[in-house]
């Protein structure tokens, strides 16, 4: 099962993803894409860590997501990626401009071939006004394109608001 979970900040998307991973009954590998660049972000990361079950394996990978997924996905395992928005930010900030397209294509190519359950979490950022800056507009555009491409490859797409999931594709019960 491939699941994409979208929602705004503090919508409950990560909590839902963690519940789905737990409900699979499989071994869970949590791939974290965040980087603790400042104190506030380090606090957010610490909070997320404290909320996860201690028996879950955590892999921190800010950029090479396709390679990491290929290395950790497998029968009897659920891989949860939180979150694609931070991964996208890391790639857009990379001085090697070609790396973004390489990693994006690699993720889209590897996803259909992965074994086990895959749960992807990302922020829906395209519901507001058009941002003023060029980089911010590119980020919103690239996130939207990525979400559309992933939604085509996933069995289930859920949108979360106020902690409530809405099934856009597939079902959630």
From TrEMBL:
Pathway field: Cofactor biosynthesis; adenosylcobalamin biosynthesis; adenosylcobalamin from cob(II)yrinate a,c-diamide: step 6/7; Cofactor biosynthesis; adenosylcobalamin biosynthesis; adenosylcobalamin from cob(II)yrinate a,c-diamide: step 5/7
Active site: 48
Residues annotated for GTP binding in this entry: 7-14, 32-34, 49-52, 60, 82
The name this protein goes by in its record: Bifunctional adenosylcobalamin biosynthesis protein
Keywords, in A-Z order: ATP-binding, Cobalamin biosynthesis, GTP-binding, Kinase, Nucleotide-binding, Nucleotidyltransferase, Transferase
Task performed by this protein: Catalyzes ATP-dependent phosphorylation of adenosylcobinamide and addition of GMP to adenosylcobinamide phosphate.
Organism whose genome encodes this protein: Lysobacter soli
EC number in record: 2.7.1.156, 2.7.7.62
UniProt record similarity statement: Belongs to the CobU/CobP family.
NCBIfam families: PRK05800.1 (NF004469)
Catalysed transformations (reactions): adenosylcob(III)inamide + ATP = adenosylcob(III)inamide phosphate + ADP + H(+); adenosylcob(III)inamide phosphate + GTP + H(+) = adenosylcob(III)inamide-GDP + diphosphate; adenosylcob(III)inamide + GTP = adenosylcob(III)inamide phosphate + GDP + H(+)
GO process terms (BP): cobalamin biosynthetic process
InterPro entries for the chain: CobU/CobP, P-loop_NTPase
One Gene Ontology term of the molecular function aspect: cobinamide phosphate guanylyltransferase activity
PANTHER family membership: BIFUNCTIONAL ADENOSYLCOBALAMIN BIOSYNTHESIS PROTEIN COBU, PTHR34848
Enzyme class at the top of the EC tree: transferase
Superkingdom in the source lineage: Bacteria
